[in-house]
Fold this sequence. Notes:
CATH architecture: Sandwich
CATH class: Mainly Beta
Helix content: under 10%
Shape: elongated
Number of domains: 1
Strand content: 35-45%
Radius of gyration: 21 Å
Order of helices and strands: HEEEEEEEEEEEE
Amino acid sequence: MRSRVVALVMLALGGCSPSSPEYVYVRTSSVAVNVTARAESRVQVGEWLRLNASRATTGDWNRVRFADVDEGMPWIGYIPPQYESEVAANLRWFSEPMDGVEFDAQAPRPVPTMERAVRFARPGKYRIWASSYPPLDATSNVLQVEVTAE
């Protein structure tokens, strides 16, 4: 009896695999994406600094059959909104210098889910920026952060 239940569960799970969408959207040359990063300009060593970012997208997207998308071509399943007020958690974040810099990625998070945070192990001046993933490729403005000793 137990083996029958396991077999039924496996069959049911096999039928739940996600299917490919029929249509997707591919970026055209008219698409412009602007990412704006925001944060306080001063923080102490070891304190989490809240990172926020918004994204504005304009331009036309091509609706194409998923089956016709070339391998490796970035696509998205929907036309992105013209303005997204908080996208910090959907970006890749960078720092210069990077040594001793920790971006939050663990649970529990020091900030709300859609935000990000960073902390620094040493005092100094740092440059922080973010970039969107394809097909919304864009690099944000650069933030200047001064980290002071405790």
